[in-house]
Design goal:
With 206 residues, the protein is an all-alpha fold. It is built from 6 helices and no strands. It is 85% helix and 0% strand.
C-alpha cells in the first residue's frame, strides 16, 4: 500500500522541490530589484525619468518597432542557460542564480515605472512586462524544474550515489525542444502585440 502511494506521489513531490527553490529564487531577485530601484536618487533618478518618458513618447508616436530576433534572444538566453546548466552538477547552484537574475530584471523594470510615474506606472508596467510574463514565465519554470532535476541527479552521481538515474535522455531533450518551441510562439505573440501594448502603456502616464 505504501509502496503504491509512493509511486503515485513521488513525481509530484519531486516537482514540488525544484519549483519551490526556483520560485523562492525568483522572488528574492524581485525583492533585490525593487530595493535597487528604491536606491536610485538625484541625477540618476532624473536620467531614468527622462529615458522612460522619451521611450514612451516614441512608442506613442509609433516610432518604436518590435523586432523578433532581439526579443527572442532576450527571452531565449535564459532557456539556453538552463540547457547548459542542466547537464552539469554546478547547475544545482547555477539554475537558482539564473532565476534570481531573471526575477531581478523583471522586478527592476516594473519598480522603475512605479518609482517614476507613481501608482499609474503599475498599469503601464502591467502592459509592458506583466502580460508578456504570463507567456514566458510558465515555459521558463517548466524548463527550470526539469533542468534542476537533471543537475541534481548529476550532483548525486558526483557525490558517489550511483543509484540515482540520469534523466538526460531523449524524453528530457524532447521536452526542452517543446519548451523552446513554446518560447518562440510566446515571443511571436509578444512581438505582434508590442505596438498595442506600448501605446497602452504610454496612455497611462503621458
Amino acid at each position: 500500500m505504501n509502496r503504491r502511494d509512493g509511486v503515485h506521489l513521488g513525481p509530484a513531490l519531486r516537482q514540488l522541490g525544484p519549483l519551490t527553490a526556483l520560485g523562492c529564487s525568483f522572488v528574492l531577485g524581485g525583492v533585490l530589484g525593487s530595493l535597487m530601484v528604491s536606491l536610485i536618487a538625484g541625477q540618476a533618478a532624473q536620467e531614468l525619468e527622462s529615458f522612460l518618458r522619451d521611450y514612451l513618447s516614441a512608442a506613442q508616436a509609433g516610432e518604436i518597432q518590435a523586432r523578433f530576433w532581439p526579443m527572442l534572444w532576450e527571452q531565449g538566453r535564459f532557456l539556453i542557460g538552463l540547457c547548459i546548466l542542466g547537464v552539469t552538477a554546478l547547475g544545482v547552484a547555477g539554475i537558482p542564480v539564473l532565476f534570481l537574475a531573471r526575477g531581478f530584471l523583471f522586478s527592476f523594470s516594473v519598480a522603475a515605472f512605479c518609482r517614476i510615474f507613481g501608482p499609474v506606472g503599475l498599469a503601464s508596467a502591467f502592459f509592458l512586462f506583466g502580460l508578456p510574463a504570463l507567456l514566458w514565465a510558465p515555459v521558463l519554470f517548466l524548463a527550470g524544474c526539469q533542468c534542476l532535476e537533471g543537475a541534481y541527479a548529476l550532483l548525486c552521481r558526483v557525490l558517489g550515489d550511483g543509484r540515482v538515474p540520469l534523466p538526460q535522455g531523449s524524453a528530457y531533450w524532447g521536452k526542452l525542444a517543446l519548451y523552446g518551441l513554446g518560447l518562440v510562439v510566446c515571443v511571436t505573440l509578444e512581438c505582434m502585440a508590442a505596438p498595442v501594448l506600448l501605446k497602452a502603456a504610454a496612455q497611462f502616464v503621458l
